[in-house]
Amino acid sequence: MTVPASICPDEASAEQVPCEAREFDPAAYAHQRTRLVLLGTSGGPPYWPGGTREGIASALVVGDRYYLVDAGHGVARQLREARLGPHYDTDFDGPLDVLAGVFLTHLHSDHTVDLPNILTEGLYNGLQHADRFPIWGPGNRGQLPPVFGGREPPEPVGGDSPTPGTRETVDLLVRAYATDINDRMFDNSKPHPSQLWEAKDVPVPPRYTADPNGNPCPEMAPFTFYEDDRVRVSATLVNHAPVFPALAYRFDTDDGSVVFSGDTGKNPNLVALARDTDVLVHEVIDKTWVASLSPEPRTPEDESMYHHLLQAHTLVEDVGRVAQEANAKTLVLSHIVPGNGEDSQFRRAGDGFDGRLVIGRDLDVIGVGRR
User: Fold this and answer.
1) What is the rounded distance in angstroms from the CA atom of residue 106 to the CA atom of residue 71?
2) pLDDT band per the 50, 70, 90 thresholds, residue 21
């Protein structure tokens, strides 16, 4: 049976209620072992006028710990609002005390801007009590992206390393905040960063990273790169050119699986990664909003930028078909563009999809597996 885009099955009653009326109340899932928490659902760098969504970030809770996927603006506050961990309501001890890992889909600022907040002010929000955790993300691009529009190349920043990956980026952040971190260690007895986390580049097989400008999303099979006692994490390259590497992640747990698309246009790699997943968290963009940026008739430059934006993201009318091809059970829209859009703009995302559609809102909670 095809569930209309404006309808979501209600798990408790087996009835259907409008998506915009459904509440994913944290209390309803508080005792479910595995659950997805949408911390921020806004896409893109703009702080959208009139919008209420925080920057892109999600938490996958598994038992008494959680994994953070992306770190957009407002994530630290949202972790408290989501009531994660046993000390979310104390002044200094939570909610970062039970953070088990950070996974960055790519290094655009809207996905990473509050990572420094987690790593610095986090020392007064539970990080000082956390077990040492990994920070995973894409590696060094290896070369600068092409110049869009045939312009003269600008002078790049970054000296001899203009495209640092995750490991180097985190090292640079520690150096940038050295005054603060050293003061906290020397004066406040806080632990050294090396005791708290280890930043790592996701080891994409080298044969797929050889040509970031010519072939930024070669077809490939998913690969597993991390496992602990709660999750097994796999990744694949997705198409967010010219950003490279851009990754999607799959978390497999004892209760089920959750896939995060990251920013991407349609591509077969994501479908393979998301095959038969319980929850697919997917970005979405409204084509009419993109068109409004450059109304017709467009100049050749405007037309090129119009298609450039559309190819790097997934349209409302396409995302349901992606979920259907992957045989996902639930499709959750996040990284929503425009971030101040109405639910009505995104209902068509359910077209061609037989599962449950959730138009994500900040602090929604979706259970994974049986309650």
Assistant:
1) 11
2) very low
Query: In whole angstroms, how far apart are CA 222 and each of 162, 210, 218, 269, 273?
Result: 28, 17, 12, 7, 6
DSSP 8-state assignment for residue 42: B
Residue 349 has pLDDT above 80, yes or no: yes
Q: What is the DSSP string of 173-207?
A: HHHHTHHHHHHHHHHH-PPPHHHHEEEEE----GG
Q: Are 216 and 241 a contacting pair, CB within 8 Å?
A: yes
Q: Which long-range contacts (C-beta less than 8 Å, at least 24 apart) are formed by 149-153? A: 149/301, 149/304, 149/305
List of residues 6+ apart from 56 with CB closer than 8 A: 40, 41, 42, 43, 70, 72, 110, 111, 334, 335
Q: With beta carbons less than 8 A apart as the criterion, state whether 251 and 236 touch.
A: no
Tokens 């994994």 belong to 67
3-state secondary structure of 17: strand
How far from the centroid of its chain's Cα atoms is residue 313's Cα?
A: 13
Burial 269-286 (b: 16+ CB within 10 A, else e): bbbbbbeebbbbbbbbbb
Q: How far apart are CA 225 and CA 203, in angstroms?
A: 7
- Rounded distance, CA 297 to CA 295, Å? 6
Are 43 and 110 in contact by the 8 Å Cβ rule? The answer is yes
Rounded-to-integer distance, Cα 110 and Cα 114, Å: 9
Whether pTM > 0.90 for this model: the answer is: yes
| Length of the chain, in residues | 371
Integer Cα distance of 315 and 303 in angstroms: 17
pLDDT in tens, 188-212: 999 999 999 999 999 999 999 999 9
Half-sphere exposure of 96 (CA within 13 A, CB side): 24
**pLDDT of 18 higher than 70:** no
List C-alpha distances in Å: 358 to 63, 66, 91, 158: 23, 21, 33, 40
* Residue 218 token pair: 């070669």
66 CB neighbour count, 10 Å cutoff: 25
Q: Strands, DSSP E only, in 63-146?
A: 65-69, 99-103, 133-137
Domains of the chain: 7-367 (3.60.15.10)
